[in-house]
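Entry 14. Structure prediction run on the chain below.
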Amino acid sequence: MTTQVAVITGAGSGIGFATALKLSGQGMAILGVGRDPEKLAGLDAAIGDPARVATLAIDVTRDDAPQRIVELAMERWSRIDVLVNNAGVGSPKPLHETDDATLDYFLGLMLRAPFRLARDVLPHMRPGSAIINITSTFAVVGGRRGGAYSAAKGGLTALTTHIACQYGASGIRCNAVAPGATRTAMTQDRFNDERFRRLNVEMTPYPRLGTVEDIASTVAFLCSPGGSFINGQTIVVDGGWSSTKYLSDYALDCEWTPREPD
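Output returned:
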């Protein structure tokens, strides 16, 4: 059986790293893309099979990034079966605090870069291939302080449904995975904030928060035969945070100070 090939951006850490290991464990060859060569070397070592892993240290927002990514994948394996657009950044600010430079950076990294990479990958995909875009619960419900982050992830959701519609007839599926609060190096500082913890822990009905393995497993399912009729969907992985109005017993029992009327 011919080995399938997955291209994963943001593969040096967090969700991207976990996804690369998960798909490698299912027998895929992995092209891991990221900005930090040392982190990518860790991915190479973790997979431990030179025939089934390659890495490329590049900023995905660079104009030549899609071409270089595709060229390396085709040079190594002559095919691309899966694209996981995962590279992203956190710590957004609300609209009124967001300057143009931040807006351009967020849109460039989390919307323009996935758009351009998918555009260059699609001509090399065969029937049965899949594109997975990592979005966010902030693309599903209104998120405090979402700003440019919400705008970028919402645009990526719309891009997902377009690709699913336009290329589904060619046997190429596209879905989004929307993580809730997930512990990664990028989000660790947020978890040190008591208000952030309250907003997520006390409003999640399942008795834990998300892990990178939760997201990686969902991506792997969408790439598997079991997910082969799922197209144009957003799979939310957040323990029920975005779809319920849950409050923990602690939150319900704590002292409440009513707002003063306007």
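The first helix runs from residue 14 to 25.
Filed with the rest of this week's runs.
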